[in-house]
Amino acid sequence: MASETKTHPWHMVEPSPWPMVGTIGAFCMAVGGIWYMQEGPLWGFLVGLAIVLYCMYGWWRDVVKEAENGTDHTPVVKTGLRMGMVLFITSEVMFFFAFFWAYFNSSVPFLSFAAQTQWPPEGIVPLDTWHLPFLNTMILLTSGATVTIAHHALRAGDRPKLVRWLIATVVLGFLFLGTQAYEYGHAAFKITDGIYPSTFYLATGFHGFHVLVGACFLLVCTIRASKGHFTPEQHIGFEAAAWYWHFVDVVWLFLFCWVYWWGSAGYNFG
After folding, report:
1. Does the structure show a pLDDT above 80 at 181?
2. In the chain, where are the structural domains located?
3. How far apart are CA 241 and CA 51, in angstroms?
4. pTM, 2 dp
């Protein structure tokens, strides 16, 4: 059957299984995670994770096809995609604001009667701010510069340079995650050791998860760029990945300043 000629600038999305598949996967991950925390088996969480990863692959594949067919991503649609990404990042700002609020609510006495009078609490040995945390800060800031260079290369039509600097950004992202994992393995406290470890691991752990998502996002962009996708005029997918990466950069700067540096300086109002 011949396709109908479009008489409007909108993208009428075909029925998709991915929202339902993603919902099922997220539900299985949540239930499986709770089950594992109650000393149950891990397989429930892993099944949910596998479903979510499959959903990500399938959904991403379909969006890439839509972006490359030359008809769906009209100027109006691209404006909507940009607005959607801005709103998504805004929601992520609120997400991390909640963690920072929990951290300050627990550590600053004039904000809450429940706050500790000594921070870090007695018995907690914080990490050395100017060792691995500072190294990770340099890694992430460098990755922000490399993705910006890649963006300029794309706008200039220099595809080999674009691919090289995207590869550098992805490598730096995974190097950050490896350093973070090493740091966790050598920390002198566990998440169950009180309010400081709880807020520390939640805030930095969720940030690490966002770095993982961003690195995967940029890896997809790298593969697409090497296959000839993206042009100086049409690269909304790359723009979204770059914006997201700069967002995780900024969040890390707040984590470094307040959770690592200020949090390890110590004070006692007792």
Report:
1. yes
2. 17-62, 73-268
3. 23
4. 0.87
In terms of CATH architecture, what is 17-62? Answer: Orthogonal Bundle (1.10)
Cβ-Cβ contacts under 8 Å for 166 (sequence gap 6 or more): 147, 150, 218, 221, 222, 225
* 17-62 and 73-268 share one fold: no
What is the C-alpha separation between 164 and 160, in angstroms, rounded?
6
Phi, psi of 245 (to 5 degrees): -65, -40
Give, in words, the CATH class of 73-268. mainly alpha
Q: Is 199:103 a contact under the CB 8 Å cutoff?
A: yes
| Full 3-state SS string of the chain | CCCCCCCCCCCCCCCCCHHHHHHHHHHHHHHHHHHHHCCCCCHHHHHHHHHHHHHHHHHHHHHHHHHHCCCCCCHHHHHHHHHHHHHHHHHHHHHHHHHHHHHHHHHCHHHCCCCCCEECCCCCCCCCCCCHHHHHHHHHHHHHHHHHHHHHHHHCCCHHHHHHHHHHHHHHHHHHHHHHHHHHHHCCCCCCCCHHHHHHHHHHHHHHHHHHHHHHHHHHHHHHHHCCCCCCCCCHHHHHHHHHHHHHHHHHHHHHHHHHHHHHHCEECC
Number of neighbours of residue 136 by Cβ within 10 angstroms: 25
pLDDT tens, residue by residue, 38-97? 888 999 999 999 999 999 899 988 988 888 877 777 888 889 999 999 999 999 999 999
Q: Which two tokens stand for residue 176?
A: 């950050």
To the nearest whole percent, how much of the chain has pLDDT over 90?
67
